Amino acid sequence: MTDTTPSLDQMANTAPTPAPLSGEQMEDMSREWNYHPDLPLQNPSIFQWPPNPAFLIGWLARNWLTLSERVMMVILAVALWYFFYPSLETAQSFAFGWIAQIYVINFVMIFAVAGGLHWYFYIRKGQGKKLKFERRDQGKNNKLWDFSDQVKDNMFWSLGSGVFQLTGFQVVTMWLMANGYAPVITFAENPVWFLAWLVIIPMWSAFHFYWVHRLLHQPFLYKRVHSLHHRNVNIGPWSGFSMHPVEHFIYLTTLCVHWVVASHPIHLYFHIVFQGPGAAMSHTGYEDLLIKDKRKLVLGTFYHQLHHRYYECNYGNQEMPWDRWFGTFHDGSPEATAETRARKKRMFG
């Protein structure tokens, strides 16, 4: 990487608000995309200096005091813990039965979420192209993808390597918890940490994702591993968890945090939902789910859509400051596109 790391003083200061795009630039962007939010992208990160209590309270309310995608994931995690996954007592010894149970549940969960989103947005076309970033549909009859079909290619890698490795990390973590090798808490023992850890897990995931993602964009790993995921310039729900087996392993090491940080199984299951089905949601290709023309559920972000089109930018997510701090932020402007293309040329020659 040729990016220079800013000083601590530079990191501490919130970047100035970028000027709006000109009318001509907005027309160019409107020709390039079916839909895009207001540009240039602003800074929605909670890590701002000086701290902004009103912004932080609003962020907490949007994400945790409404029926947001994160709250829905926690509800699913509780249901998985109470009704579906085997107990920790069962996981004290490795056995085919409970491991197969987890595999089947994970397979059905990924299939239902990614498949359900694909059916609604791309088969039923329940929202048409409202809030859809790309103009194009999913690719077919192209040898770029296995089976010459983007959706079949993505399903193969998501349900094959993806579900297998997600289950493997979960099985090992449950075994460690069940045998006292990983710290386990209950809500009754520590309610403050129980709730705080739920809020922190997506932040930890974003921190881990940024750094392993930059690793995967190093030329050696990109060409041999990460390029499989980046076949999907025009992403869809099945694209999110479609990865090379080596990338699945690297991506899912985020779950190893539960080996050392005190957690309840609900925390582990929330994390699993966030990494698996959550990837399908964030790669839907639409910004939000509309119900009666009202935005009801956050899905993809233009921030990550820019990464899939221009590659060497926006490695993290828009709530965390890493791309802004380390000079890899694309705000949707033509100037940022030029900078990103120059970075790519430096990296790959």
Automatic annotation (TrEMBL):
<feature type="transmembrane region" description="Helical">
    <location>
        <begin position="100"/>
        <end position="122"/>
    </location>
</feature>
<dbReference type="InterPro" id="IPR006694">
    <property type="entry name" value="Fatty_acid_hydroxylase"/>
</dbReference>
<feature type="transmembrane region" description="Helical">
    <location>
        <begin position="192"/>
        <end position="212"/>
    </location>
</feature>
<keyword id="KW-0472">Membrane</keyword>
<dbReference type="GO" id="GO:0016491">
    <property type="term" value="F:oxidoreductase activity"/>
</dbReference>
<dbReference type="GO" id="GO:0016020">
    <property type="term" value="C:membrane"/>
</dbReference>
<feature type="domain" description="Fatty acid hydroxylase">
    <location>
        <begin position="200"/>
        <end position="328"/>
    </location>
</feature>
<dbReference type="GO" id="GO:0008610">
    <property type="term" value="P:lipid biosynthetic process"/>
</dbReference>
<feature type="compositionally biased region" description="Polar residues">
    <location>
        <begin position="1"/>
        <end position="16"/>
    </location>
</feature>
<keyword id="KW-0812">Transmembrane</keyword>
<keyword id="KW-1133">Transmembrane helix</keyword>
<feature type="region of interest" description="Disordered">
    <location>
        <begin position="1"/>
        <end position="24"/>
    </location>
</feature>
<dbReference type="Pfam" id="PF04116">
    <property type="entry name" value="FA_hydroxylase"/>
</dbReference>
<dbReference type="GO" id="GO:0005506">
    <property type="term" value="F:iron ion binding"/>
</dbReference>
<feature type="transmembrane region" description="Helical">
    <location>
        <begin position="71"/>
        <end position="88"/>
    </location>
</feature>
<protein>
    <recommendedName>
        <fullName>Fatty acid hydroxylase domain-containing protein</fullName>
    </recommendedName>
</protein>
<dbReference type="InterPro" id="IPR050307">
    <property type="entry name" value="Sterol_Desaturase_Related"/>
</dbReference>
<feature type="transmembrane region" description="Helical">
    <location>
        <begin position="156"/>
        <end position="177"/>
    </location>
</feature>
